[in-house]
Specification:
With about 525 residues, the protein is α/β, with parallel strands linked by helices. The protein is built from 14 helices and 16 strands.
Length: about 525
């Protein structure tokens, strides 16, 4: 059975199941945002992967998949944009959580932005969060300081899945805690608490907003043995064959245009036939797949709880990733420990990240398509009638605030706590849910570590720091292989001028001005 036919069966089954649930509840919807960490564009089954993601696929079969939705290439700036509806520099997180040279780089959410939780809380929502925060290391910049009624999770960035790394902060509410108990596993623990929040608040008439931010599948490679066993040996085909297989499925599903060729293997990745220690490489990718599989199992637990409390019809659920796949090389654990050991602390490496980002090139950190393209699934049975559909409408993280407020019937504030708030940058996605289209952004902008981009209609201007500007026609060439900058100098100039105006407005600095020869806070 082809990928397209198999997915059609899933869609039909989801529609049949939906018909048994009864009529939608009246009133304002509940809203759930679920985010993966360092997951590539092609790592979900419903986006072309071989990894078992039946619960996320179920969500997609009951809702809408976006093929041109963007994040901001790195965890901290993405979380800042998602929460505030602003570009990250406007919210105070122009880079990461380390202190930078200006307010745009202060390393925590500023008082000229407002979070989705703050606005919805004022509108009567219960605001709940489990998972990774990473937009403010110290009080008073934690989740419950920024509008969440309940919080459980990792304040800091990445950590072991079986314990909390030294120097990392984990909290319940405003209290730092050590959550580690028997059989502690980070992904499961976040879900356990999210389910507790839903049981506590979800049956009440008051609507809820839940933000569930997993660390999976961010390094280190840590997974349960049973999940790893499902994938052991499957990746001995290698990254070259895996990229070709995923690309074929993505074309069959309609995720990518057959006109876009698969980008060449990254020049830093060897051909699989030349790769050394294939058994270790297979194991690393198997553990990575197991992390996504376990996250998907936990998404299923959340969706089942939403159904159990009778909220499935009028709950808007989003699923997305914070950046493209991660090519960072990490080896911090016990020397020689294999990737399936709790004593290891490894990443899966650039060649597998190249496969995760099929069909694009480059990764997290960079603002070519491989760094900023994310799956986005939106499921809202009471509103989205065209189940299992794909949309090619362009969207950005800044749109999630606008969408949440539009769904809730809430106005974005001009002030908060008597301080003026930066105007909202995003636009609601709900017209896409209802009619299939909307009036999109005139242009979208990116800057991270000196990497820069502008998207205007089908055109994308992009620069890999410290390189020159490149120009691509994304309708014909979304894998960014045919640089048209020399053929369209006037367009390049006009788009550069727009980028400079945006950068000035948002407080973006040149990368050397940010670092001063040193790199501020990292993940």
């Amino acid at each position: 059975m082809s990928a397209k036919c198999l997915y059609a069966v899933i869609i039909i089954c989801a529609a049949m199941a939906s018909g048994l649930r009864g009529e939608a509840k009246p009133g304002r919807p509940n809203i759930v945002i679920i985010m993966a960490d360092d997951m590539g564009f092609s790592d979900l089954g419903c986006y072309g992967s071989e990894i078992t993601t039946q619960n996320v696929d179920r969500l997609a079969a009951g809702g809408l998949r976006f093929t041109q939705f963007y994040n901001t290439a790195r965890c901290c700036p993405t979380r800042a944009s998602l929460l505030t509806g602003l570009y990250p520099h406007q919210a105070g997180i122009g880079h990461m959580v380390g202190q930078g040279p200006t307010p745009a780089y202060q390393g925590y959410l500023n008082d000229r932005c407002v979070t989705i939780a703050e606005v919805l809380k004022q509108a009567g929502y219960r605001t709940l969060m489990a998972g990774k925060w990473h937009v403010g290391e110290d009080r008073p910049h934690w989740p419950c300081d920024r509008g969440f009624d309940e919080y459980f999770g990792l304040i800091s960035g990445a950590s072991s899945y079986f314990s909390i790394d030294p120097g990392r902060k984990f909290a319940r509410g405003n209290e730092q805690i050590d959550p580690v108990k028997d059989r502690f596993y980070m992904t499961d623990a976040f879900t356990d608490e999210a389910l507790s929040f839903l049981e506590k608040h979800g049956r009440r008439p008051q609507p809820f907003f839940l933000y569930l931010a997993y660390t999976s599948p961010h390094w280190p490679l840590h997974a349960w043995p049973g999940d790893i066993a499902k994938y052991r040996g499957k990746y001995r085909i290698g990254w070259d064959a895996l990229r070709r297989q995923r690309h074929k499925r993505m074309i069959e599903m309609g995720i990518v245009d057959p006109r876009w060729p698969l980008s060449p293997r990254d020049p830093e990745a060897p051909a699989w036939t030349d790769a050394a220690d294939k058994d270790d490489l297979d194991l690393r990718m198997a553990v990575y797949a197991a992390q996504i599989d376990r996250m998907d199992q936990n998404v299923g637990r959340v969706l089942n709880k939403i159904g159990e409390i009778g909220a499935d019809q009028n709950t808007l659920v989003f699923f997305l990733a914070d950046n493209g796949a991660c090519a960072e090389k990490v080896d911090r654990g016990r020397k020689g420990a294999a990737a399936d050991s709790k004593d290891s602390y490894l990443s899966y490496g650039l060649p597998w990240a190249n496969a995760s980002n099929t069909p694009f090139r480059l990764y997290k950190h960079w603002v070519h398509e491989g760094g900023i393209s994310t799956p986005l699934i939106a499921c809202w049975p009471a509103v989205i009638d065209k189940r299992g559909a794909i949309t090619r409408e362009v969207g950005h993280l800044i749109d999630l605030m606008a969408t949440c407020l539009d769904a809730a019937g809430v106005e974005y504030p001009a002030t908060y706590h008597d301080k003026p708030i930066a105007p909202l940058e995003g636009k609601s996605l709900i017209p896409i849910f209802r009619t299939g289209t909307r009036q999109g952004h005139e242009a979208l902008f990116w800057e991270h570590e000196g990497n820069r981009a502008v998207r205007e209609g089908k055109w994308k201007l992009v620069s890999r720091h410290p390189g020159e500007w490149e120009l691509y026609d994304l309708e014909a060439d979304r894998t960014e292989l045919n640089n048209l900058a020399d053929k369209h100098p006037d367009r390049v100039k006009a788009m550069v001028d727009k980028y400079k105006a945006w950068a000035d407005r948002c407080g973006v600095l040149r990368w050397d001005q940010v670092t001063g020869g040193k790199k501020p806070g990292t993940k």
